Amino acid sequence: xxxxxxxFNMNFLKALNLDSNSIGSIEASxxxxxxxxxxxxxxxxxxxxxDRRTFETLFYLRKLNLSSNQLEFVDQFVFAQxxxxxxxxxxxxxxxxxxxxxFSQLNRLRDLYLNQQExxxxxxxxxxxxxxxxxxxxxxxxxxxxxxxxxxxxNSLKPTRERYVSEDLIYLRTIxxxxxxxxxxxxxxxxxVNNC
Length: 196
What we know:
Helix content: under 10%
Number of helices: 2
Strand content: 15-25%
Distance between the termini: 23 Å
Oligomer: single chain
Radius of gyration: 16 Å
Shape: globular
Number of strands: 9
Mean pLDDT: 78
């Protein structure tokens, strides 16, 4: 587990790789002294939840990799302070729920990986506010209550301010959708780009 104060006197650190360290939890103030951090990878651990304050001081963070953990829930405010985030990898978790507007503050997010989620349910506004999104990777099983079609995707990508759907997708270059147990029209499927 990551305790607060572990990164004391490392305030100029730009990149931090904590992959495969059997991390189960992160105390809320663990990264508070890493204000210059631009890249953080916590892949292949056992993290099952994130406190709303976990990343609140990482204003310059551009890439965050949380893949291959045990996250089940994405809180509306956990990424709220990551204004410069360009790439977020949440693939290969156990995410069931993404709160409405969870990504609404991520105006610079270009790449979002939500693939390999077995029971993901996308609510109407789960992806709202992704104004700069270029590559979106989503896969899940259709479970009760998860009605997913092209219009649902378009509506979920709508920014909070009123715009037409065609404008919402102006920057979207790649969408990679996999749905098990049913069929879905793939809007576009290009070769997968590198994760965060």
